[in-house]
Design brief:
CATH class of the largest domain: Alpha Beta
Structural class: alpha+beta
Low-confidence stretches: none
Mean pLDDT: 93
Distance between the termini: 44 Å
Number of helices: 15
Helix content: 40-55%
Largest sheet: 3 strands, antiparallel
CATH topology of the largest domain: Nucleotidyltransferase, domain 5
Number of domains: 3
Shape: globular
């Protein structure tokens, strides 16, 4: 899907609404449309045709906003108001104008103003295209796209054909960790419960390690490391250096001091966590303070802990992945990267032929089925798996 900037988005959204209204009520639209609209919205809005100077772009956006506002007001007073306002492109226009424009900016309390990028709510669920209102913008590892995200699950048993067991399609903004529970529930419903599920690091969440273990599924993947400066500094006191007494709800530091506060909180997402505080007096007098906290004196050390089960599951996962055996075990997941590459290269996995999440998911399901047919055919024909390709240049080193 074409990635539209803000100016293209509002312009193209107004053009899409005009095209639909032209089919619904051509005579009415002809009566209310100014002559300059035919030139401005008669063809696709593309960035290379738009003004280049920032002031001119703002003025152009303001013009589009006023045109859209005028159209909506005329439509509300027309005989085709009910039918016109029910059009998806018109509803999209209303939603986008509420997001990108500020109302009541005139002296009489009327008028619109084009919002600056800083005024926009980056967390809002914003429409990115008038032609696919379910598609969302996402940026990962330097790559950005508007659309959806596909999650593939496959078998990885030794000496057996690898087959796709589940396909999930979500909007692009939905994080992987929020999908793992749904994937497991779907596999269980198909009577395909995995004993072990090897996943990418993005799917690993400490709370989920516990909840999914209760379903009889061990989630195996690189656990997120401790992000604190203490963990990255040699000799400093990270969380692993503290002794936690879960029964007494106390923590002992490496210098033998005991915490003075143990409080339970919830993050905005609803996930629980514990806040542990040490005495300001103990920390102020401690000779190892520089290894423990950078808080401005006299503030003492604080720790953010997960609930006991999640903390222990995360600690255990980190310890396993640090071992040679754990890393060797995790290599079984490597095959899914080849599956994704095959799906993209041979079956157009990352290019949707359709509009909307439901139809895109249907395409992804078809791709999964095609992969299975291809693999089963090769399995029965005795065709071995292809090896990783090495460039001619790199082969010189291994020769």
């Amino acid at each position: 899907m074409r990635n539209l900037n803000r100016l293209e988005l509002v312009g193209e959204s107004l053009r899409a609404a005009l095209n639909d209204l032209a089919e619904l009520a051509p005579e009415w639209l002809q009566q209310i449309a100014p002559d300059d609209w035919y030139e401005r919205y008669g063809r696709r809005i593309e960035n290379y045709r738009l003004p280049s100077k920032e002031s001119e772009r703002v003025a152009y956006a303001q013009r589009i906003g006023e045109d859209g506002d005028y159209l909506l007001k005329c439509l509300a007073d027309s005989e085709v108001a009910a039918e016109g306002q029910a059009l998806e492109t018109v509803q999209t226009l209303v939603s986008l104008w509420q997001y990108h424009y500020s109302e009541g900016e005139g002296e009489d309390g009327s008028g619109l103003r084009w919002k600056s990028s800083r005024e926009l709510n980056s967390q809002a669920d914003c429409i990115e295209s008038p032609y696919d209102t379910e598609a969302r913008y996402c940026r990962r590892q330097g790559i950005s796209w508007v659309g959806y995200r596909t999650h593939l699950s496959e078998t990885c048993d030794s000496n057996s054909v690898r087959l796709i067991t589940h396909v999930m399609t979500t909007d692009a903004r939905r994080h992987e960790a929020l999908c793992i529970e749904g994937i497991h529930d779907a596999l269980i419903a198909k009577q395909l419960r995995p004993a072990e599920h090897f996943v990418d690091a993005a799917y690993v969440d400490a709370l989920l390690l516990v909840s999914e273990q209760a379903k009889g599924i061990e989630t195996v993947g690189p656990a997120r490391s401790d992000p604190s400066w203490q963990h990255r500094t040699e000799g400093a006191y990270g969380i692993a250096d503290f002794q936690i007494d879960w029964q007494q709800q106390q923590v002992s530091c490496p210098q033998g001091k005991t915490s003075k506060a143990w409080m339970q909180y919830q993050r905005p997402s609803g996930d629980p966590y514990l806040l542990v505080r040490f005495s300001n007096t103990d920390c102020r007098q401690c000779s190892a303070r520089h290894l423990c906290t950078r808080a401005k004196p006299p503030v003492g050390r604080t720790l953010h802990l997960l609930p006991q089960a999640a903390h222990e599951a995360l600690t255990r996962a980190r310890a396993i992945q640090a071992t040679t055996a754990g890393q060797k075990r995790y290599r079984r997941r490597a095959g899914i990267e080849g599956t994704i590459a095959q799906g993209v290269g041979s079956y157009g996995l990352r290019r949707s032929r359709y509009i909307g999440q439901a139809k895109t998911h249907l395409q992804n399901m078809a791709v999964g089925a095609a992969l299975n047919i291809d693999r089963l055919f090769n399995w029965f024909q005795g065709v071995p798996k292809a090896k990783t390709r090495i460039s001619h240049f790199k082969a010189l080193k291994t020769a």
